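Dear support,

We are seeing what looks like truncated structure output for some complexes. This example has two components. We would appreciate it if you could run it in full and send us the complete token output so we can diff it against ours.
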Amino acid sequence: MKYYSYFPGCSAESTGRGLGLSAEAIAKPLDMELVEIEDWNCCGSTPYGSLDEEGALVVAARNLALAEKMGFDLVTPCSSCYVTLSKANRNLHDHPALLKKVNEALAVAGLEYKGTLRVRHLVDVLVNDITPDFIAARLKKPLRGLKVAPYYGCQLVRPDYGLDDTEQPVTLDKLVAATGAEAVDFPLKVRCCGGSLMLSEEASTLGLINKLLKSAADSDAQCIATACPLCQTNLDAYQSRVNSVFRTSFNVPVLFITQLIGLALGVDEKSLGLDANIVAIPSVILGSSEATPKNPSPDTRPEAKIPPIPTSVNIEGSVRRGSI
Amino acid sequence: MKAEMKTFLDEVRETPGGEHVLACIQCGTCTGSCPMAARMEHAPRQTIAMVRAGLRDEVLSSNSMWFCLSCYTCTVRCPRGVHPTELAHALESLASQHGYRVEKTLTPRLYRSFVDSIEANGRVHELGMMVKYYMGAGPLSAMRLWKVGLQLFLHKRLPVRPTRIKGRDDLARILKKYREVRSNG
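Here is the complete output from our reference environment:
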């Protein structure tokens, strides 16, 4: 059993309910114990840092201090929490004078941060601690024959906290392959979905989602798998908006990678929060098990193949001005 | 005030995220990589040039940095380690703290609603945050999205009740203390 200090993030309680539920549901079958950090607060995300760069540091630091006391690595399933907490952690680690000031402030609540914590994304834990081989060996319903577009988005791999390549990552591809499904070549897999600006600048960000959905559909993917709650919400909840604005007819289910793994592990749909998904998930995904033996031996399972990494980086998502 | 004696460039460089602005060689990789450059009054490369030219009001009242999606593509591609994403956050932070009113973007209002929600509850209450934001942003923008909101609500993805943490007073006291410590240098 591996233990982690678990930071679900605010969205795991609401828009990203499917992520929160599925992360917790796959923990047990994968021998992980996600011990929730008691009374954690919002990491601050991008907005806090944008209004008050330094205040954001202490908002994050309270969580780091609470987690450090527990003695395990901090793990979060949310890409934005991952970047925000990693950034605060790095700043506090690299600048002892800053750490001292932050500790003066934390002391009013009886807290102290020593700077020893490791902040990790759940994808990191699944790939490097649990390992794809271990996941593959635990499958009850391998998703054989299913084509999945692995969507990394931005903050899982950028700026760069060492998890994966920033433009041609492979970690999600490996996890998709571990479920028995096929990770298709998805050229826009690291392009931005628009993030929270979907609320304030829909006219611009809807176009980004349109391109992502088109790229996934062109790759013959039957669904998209992502690790980020904001990516999932944008691609799933706004798909109908894309269809009405761009006169398209996308019908691409968007699952969390943890939901996909959960299905392959034989976890029930409700525990994985699949009822939270807005674009309906067809039975070909939910019932992938039907065509496969009940208890396939991992040794006889055909090697799921990871697609070749595209040699050129597609920057279709970027818009160039006449003059740069 | 001290702020009046130092240049805008100094001010930016002293703000976390703005430290590396002088390393820029104006190659334009940031602008070429930016999914939102076309929507900004001044694209990222140009904004950096303006910071260095000391155009304080023009930069801090522009909508440019508020269009940053924090996708960090410019940051990982910049050959000089300027960290344009962090620079955008630094400029947003300076514009907010100095009370600049920014036209042609609703993002500052969105961020304010988000931060208010954290300060009230300790965690973000997404429904409350959205209601507050749309009340200020105007009913038209809310109307366009009622179907999306309804779907989220029906799928139990927008709980009505906020989660309030026990330590929200602690959080407020920590922030207050930190602001004191910071202003004492």
